[in-house]
Specification:
Length: about 180
């Protein structure tokens, strides 16, 4: 049975969307192609009519995750007190508990780095956040300050997701959030 080009394009997007959520939630290595395709009601063999390799899917899924985050960040940085809103959202309990919907940097970047496969898309996602943060800061150290802020955000979120103790996780988010907001501007 032959499917229309539209059907193939829709299936392609469904695979990317599901992979984007799973890679952010479970990690790249822990996300197998067979379970991914099965969750979508597709066959493992059908994967290769959409992508040359898992690495290609990883890149496209990272791009999709970046696009999702760009929409949220555009809204946050367009409002009043944009850096404060961004910090509060990034270090929220929702973001901690929803890696599949949030920033891909904490889960995907660490894994890409460990695999020795840095991504130009990771660079683009990171640079977009750094530029937005820097635009809210004053002074000649704004670029360095934006790197510090983003590093602290990703690190605190990643650590809060890795500890068993909910009080410690919440404290990491709270302390980092308050310290970053003290140094705003």
């Amino acid at each position: 049975m032959r499917y229309s080009q539209n059907h193939k394009a829709q299936t392609h997007q469904r695979i990317i969307k599901e992979a984007s959520a799973r890679f952010r939630r479970d990690g790249i290595g822990a996300t197998g192609l067979q379970p991914l395709m099965k969750a979508l009601g597709l066959t493992h063999g059908g994967f290769y009519s959409h992508f040359k390799s898992k690495d290609e899917l990883v890149e496209k899924a990272l791009q999709a995750a970046g696009d999702e985050v760009n929409v949220v960040c555009a809204e946050l940085f367009a409002g009043d007190r944009p850096l404060e809103a961004f910090i509060d959202t990034y270090l929220s309990e929702w973001h901690q508990a929803s890696p599949h919907k949030g920033c891909p940097l904490p889960t995907m970047s660490s894994e890409l780095g460990l695999r020795g496969q840095p991504s130009p898309t990771s660079d683009a996602v990171l640079r977009a956040r750094l530029e937005q943060i820097e635009s809210t800061l004053e002074g000649e150290n704004a670029a360095d300050q934006s790197i510090f802020i983003m590093s602290a955000l990703v690190g605190a979120l990643l650590l809060s997701r890795s500890v068993e103790c909910p009080e410690l996780a919440r404290r990491m988010l709270d302390v980092t959030r308050e310290r970053l907001k003290q140094h705003e501007g």
